[in-house]
């Protein structure tokens, strides 16, 4: 019997090559989409985090604003009677001179009379004060914002005299006088006459010295004291307006 030979189909190599290229292309596309998908996912995650932070910050600011508004409403309800009160400065305007600062200085004064053998010593303290004339001030009241604006004249210094005098005089015959107290024998009237001269000298010298010191050393302290005292006066005159603000300046 004649055997039939099996016939085998031969696949061209080009087919394998095409199939291989197609597989590589598919794998490449899959990798491309996987990478792109990863980038999209990362971007989406970052956008989500950014949005979450922004939302948190916005919520935080909103909560803060809500709390402030709630506090303001509560304060307004609590002080609604006081807020409706008018600020009064009539009693302040009626005050003529406000004493804002007192100052003093001391010195020793000596005199020797060789002919009468008398030596005198006197310690004197000179005093002065700064005042502000509130009637010459300018006032402006802002009822809506509870603010009182005041422009004050400059504080004025006034020498008020001598206090705390301590006298000591004695003669060279060993008689000592301390005030009205006398030890030994001496002429009290002669010592008193000299002390009167010294008192006149002390008044002139202390007045000049203290007035000069007032300009150089005490003027700023006087202004600070005036602001503090006047602020207290305005607040005391308006007990029903606890949140009143006092803005004080000085005229040139």
Poorly predicted regions = 1-7, 78-83
Query: The biggest beta sheet, please?
Result: 5 strands, antiparallel
Q: What fraction strand?
A: 25-35%
How many independent structural domains? Answer: 2
Oligomer: single chain
Average per-residue pLDDT, rounded, comes to 75
Overview of this structure, please?
By secondary structure, this protein is of the alpha+beta class. The protein has two domains: about 15-80; about 90-165 and about 200-250, no CATH class. The protein is about 50% helix and about 30% strand. It has helices spanning about 15-80, 80-85, 90-95, 190-235, and strands at about 95-115, 120-135, 140, 145-150, 155-170, 175-180, 180-185, 245-250. Strands 1-2-5-6-7 form a five-stranded antiparallel sheet.
